[in-house]
Design brief:
This protein has 17 helices and 17 strands. The chain is of the alpha+beta class and about 650 residues long. Helix 13 runs antiparallel to helix 14, helix 14 packs across helix 17 and helix 16 runs antiparallel to helix 17. It is elongated, with a radius of gyration of 60 Å. The relative contact order is 0.04.
Amino acid sequence: MPSRLDYLPGTWRGSRPWTNTPAGLFLVLGTVGGTVLLRESLAPLLGTSSPMLAFVLPVTICAAVGGLWLGLLATLLALGAGYFFFIEPIHSLAPTTPADLVRIVLFTAIGIAISAVSGRMHREVERSREAERILTERAQASARNAQHFRTLLTSRTLGVATFRGDAIVEANDAFLDVLGLTSDEFDALAGKLTWREITPPDHQAADELAGRQLRTMGYCAPYEKEFFRKGGSRVPALIGGAVVLGREGRDLTGMFYIVDLSRLRRAEQALRESEARLRLALDAARAGSWAWDAVTNHLVWSERNYELYGVDPKRVPTVERWLEAIHPDDRARIVDESDRMLASGAEHFRIELRVPHGAHGVRWLAVLGQVHRDERGEVVRSAGLTLDVTDRRNIEESERAARAEAERASRLKDEFVATLSHELRTPLTSILGWAQVLKRSPHGGDQLDRGLDVIERNARVLSQLVSDLLDVGRIVTGKIHLDVAPFDLGAVVASAAETVRPSAEQKGVALDVRVAPIGEPLLGDDARIEQLLWNLFSNAIKFSPPGGRVEVLVRPSRGRAIIVVRDFGQGIAPEFLPHLFERFRQEDASASRRYGGLGLGLSIVKHIADLHGGRVVAESAGPGLGATFTVELPLASESRVTAARHASPEPLRRAG
């Protein structure tokens, strides 16, 4: 389609199908050449008169067909041909007479005039054709627009009506739907429905402003208002208008459109209610929400999210600050899991991490999210929730610890049963063996004394095993009793030392006991304290090498009595020290272990010390470097004994 410049004088740029094509050149050559042949054939009749007159015909033909430029070309070629073939001297370019020059100038002027007139006619014809084409296209576009407008009017999506002054003249079904009217009801009003009747009073000021805009600018900017609906209810709408037909007298005539906003308002209300329910649910679950824009790397947190991470709400959240809030030991793992999740194409993910919360210590958080991707699979955004799962993790950890403890207890039970069987079988075997020997031997003497000694010693071992088992049973059930009374610790230590001295001498272990004077007695059960000391002394002797030494030191210290038992034997591995006072725990629980015992003595020692308000600790530099046990017991003036005196306490069997 030509532009406006195409119609300005002297700027016509219409098509020139003959001027710039070989067909135009052939036309010029053909017409001029034909004229030359025709003039040659008429030469006997015409002679030398009017030599250029015949060439007016080809100039006219070429100008009529090709316009200005083709006419000028034909004029130039005809001028050369006439001059060369028909002006004296013929076939020569020599100067001619003044009469011939006049003929040449006259022919040139005629050719130019014919070409100019033909060119003007060509331009006018082309303009007429282009104008017809433009009018046709505009008519077609107008028809299409009218069809589209009619489709829009009948689609019930956009309300349209015409107005004259304050009266509504015409309206489509979409507008009538807003007012709750049928087309028959509207037609019955016959133009009596006015703008003011359907507008609530609180919106008439906005209508007056729109009216002033229509009068001054011819249109009004879109604005929101409400309409009265049939029955008295209100309908929110977006409205805009323009003056279309101008004025009819003093009244403006135009058209306005209406978009029903009631559905949008309902959707907004539903969205607000949904958001409120979501906030209540998140508050009930103590969950925080977050959203991340992968394009801008922008991160948004809810207030609860700040609280869960222990981050100052005044700080703008970023991915880098989120990583800083994570426990240092979890950062590398979280980065790896995030990269792996994004690369896998997964839409949903769950990551659990720890945060060092300033107010609540280390907390476990579960990050749940959904990933949104574009058509190429690239991540564009992600959003989700943050939940505090510390309680669940603690419960799971407690359950794992309980299962591990149950498995350990089961294993210890099995080991204890095996150990008990071994410990009972050894003395019983000796007793039965010597009983059979003595039964077959008719004579007494040394063999009888030796046999009775072995039987007595092994019977004492069995008695001690049974006593330890009974004490452990009382400890577990909380039925162990103390016969509380003041007693002399030095005498109890000496008695316990004399009890174990035979076994020390038999093994060649020196027992060095040093008791510093203690200014006051202790308050407690002296039999239980002797049992505590006997267990410690026996352990020290058992784990000392032949020819070794066991040191016992008793001294007062700040209202407490300190008992130190040190040996220089097997020692204790550092990893076993925390479990040393647990029931049934032995560093070597195999059936082929070097030292016997049920693993109950030290647990009994700890429980007796606790009952007397004291404590016991063990130290060792490692295997082969000996061990030191330190017992602290309060003196009578500082006693914190928690056990009560009971009548008829269970008698305690002491090792003799």
